[in-house]
């Protein structure tokens, strides 16, 4: 009978080891639209092929300096290094959790020498009252994961590691998007600064003509004051734009992991705005959700919280621990490791908190609530991703239309200002028409520069929402000083 029972016990243990308490993770099914409601808004009608979202999107702007700044940010940005350290930490915790599946083996050795007092051992010589003891032993302890507590713990740690990896990718999306947006805003500000200075030069020429007419007795001080006031108002734009240019340069330097002054010389030289891609296509909502790292991170955290329900549920059942010891103990070091000095122990321990069932069920309830919250967070991340893309699509499309009108307005206002100045010099128009035309020209050209900037940043926002084109590289790791 004994030989029949042992296989049965072994089979039962294997069967229990094959199961794990708690719910198995199943990816939630969410109803998503087949296409974006605003998907056609951003697509051009010229038949051009849209860049693939998996390409490095900044290459589509054909700006080597922008590419260089993004490459530097991906390797040196400190927010990315923080995200990388979180990923490394999660990986280390996962490796630690995996070790719980195997026995824990420790070794120890001790040696002692003592002497009892003559009161304790009367009529015994000093040598007789001396005691020596030496021992060397190896200990092993292994939790028999019959109910899956360890496996659920490893599952949770693995999902958290995946979530940290997605967080790193999401931070890449954020940093690259911010670098590209800041760079475009810098070029837009530099263009607006150029527009303000060119218009100020034109208005200086107008003031010179008005002053000459006044000196010749053909004008009034009122005209001179109006012309000078308009010039001063235009010149007042310059310091604020210069400050915004400097602030944006500082931001780009810090984003690339450098001190704020590091890029001033590089970025001071004005350059045109990056060219817009001919066409943008966000694909389908399903494709988008598979690319978005923030959605992936939310799903992995839902997986981790689901596994933690199993960890808490396993406490309802007894925890079996197999322990073993083998060693040698003797009163003299020369006798160690002899057969007569051998010691060993094999024990099966059972730990079951059945009298603490209330606390166990409270922990299970807490794990259930956390999983429910993570499910809601995952569902919200899906909706926010869809909303983000729909918003980016419509803003980009409308910005392109606005851009076309602003460009024509800038061209026509420049022509009107030139004609007004010619008419004024010929005596066919008064100063008011010239000043009004020049003011309109400044406003239209400034609005066009700002609108073109918003068109390019709108394209960047759409690329960012599509979350494509993120190279598989990690920021540079730097050791802690003194380690």
Automatic annotation (TrEMBL):
Protein's recorded name: Efflux transporter outer membrane subunit
Entry-linked InterPro entries: MdtP/NodT-like, OMP_efflux
Leader sequence segment: 1-20
Region Disordered: start-end pairs: 106-132
Protein's membrane topology: Lipid-anchor
PROSITE patterns on file: PROKAR_LIPOPROTEIN (PS51257)
Location of this chain's protein in the cell: Cell outer membrane
Keyword annotations: Lipoprotein, Membrane, Palmitate, Signal, Transmembrane, Transmembrane beta strand
Similarity remark: Belongs to the outer membrane factor (OMF) (TC 1.B.17) family.
PANTHER family: OUTER MEMBRANE CATION EFFLUX PROTEIN, OUTER MEMBRANE PROTEIN-RELATED
Compositional bias ranges of the Low complexity kind: 108-118
């Amino acid at each position: 009978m004994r030989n029949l029972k042992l296989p049965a016990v072994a089979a039962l243990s294997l069967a229990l080891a094959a199961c794990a308490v708690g719910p198995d993770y199943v990816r939630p099914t969410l109803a998503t639209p087949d296409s974006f409601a605003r998907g056609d808004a951003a697509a051009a009608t010229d038949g051009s092929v849209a860049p693939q979202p998996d390409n490095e999107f900044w290459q589509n702007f054909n700006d080597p300096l922008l590419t260089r700044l993004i490459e530097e940010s991906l390797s040196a940005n400190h927010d990315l290094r923080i995200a990388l350290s979180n990923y490394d930490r999660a990986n280390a915790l996962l490796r630690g959790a995996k070790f719980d599946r195997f026995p824990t083996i420790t070794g120890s050795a001790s040696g002692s020498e003592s002497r009892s007092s003559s009161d304790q051992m009367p009529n015994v010589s000093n040598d007789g009252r001396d005691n020596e003891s030496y021992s060397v032993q190896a200990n092993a302890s292994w939790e028999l994961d019959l109910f899956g507590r360890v496996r659920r713990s490893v599952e949770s740690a693995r999902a958290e590691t995946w979530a940290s990896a997605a967080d790193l990718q999401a931070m890449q999306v954020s940093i690259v998007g911010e670098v590209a947006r800041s760079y475009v805003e810098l070029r837009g500000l530099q263009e607006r600064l150029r527009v303000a200075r060119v218009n100020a030069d034109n208005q200086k020429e107008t003031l010179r003509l008005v002053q000459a007419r006044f000196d010749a007795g053909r004008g009034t001080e009122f005209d001179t004051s109006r012309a000078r006031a308009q010039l001063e108002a235009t010149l007042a734009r310059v310091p604020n734009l210069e400050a915004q240019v400097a602030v944006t340069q500082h931001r780009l330097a810090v984003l690339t992991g450098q001190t704020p002054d590091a890029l001033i010389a590089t970025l001071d030289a004005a350059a045109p705005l990056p060219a817009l891609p001919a066409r943008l296509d966000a694909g389908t909502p399903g494709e988008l959700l598979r690319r978005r790292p923030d959605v992936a991170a939310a799903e992995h955290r839902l997986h981790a919280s689901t596994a933690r329900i199993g960890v808490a549920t396993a406490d309802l059942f007894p925890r079996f621990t197999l322990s073993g010891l083998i060693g040698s103990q003797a009163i003299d070091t020369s006798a160690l490791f002899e057969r007569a000095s051998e010691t060993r122990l094999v024990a099966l321990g059972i730990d079951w908190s059945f009298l603490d069932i209330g606390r166990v069920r409270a922990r299970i309830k807490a794990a259930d609530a956390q999983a429910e919250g993570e499910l809601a967070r995952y569902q919200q991340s899906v909706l926010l991703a869809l909303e983000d893309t729909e918003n980016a699509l419509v803003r980009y499309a409308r910005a392109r239309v606005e851009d076309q009108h602003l460009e024509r307005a800038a061209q026509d206002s420049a022509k009107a200002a030139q004609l007004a100045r010619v008419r004024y010099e010929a005596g066919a128009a008064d100063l008011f028409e010239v000043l009004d035309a020049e003011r309109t020209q400044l406003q239209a050209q400034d609005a066009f520069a700002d609108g073109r900037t918003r068109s390019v940043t709108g394209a960047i926002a759409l690329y960012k929402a599509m979350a494509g084109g993120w190279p598989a590289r990690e920021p540079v790791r730097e050791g802690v000083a003194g380690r």
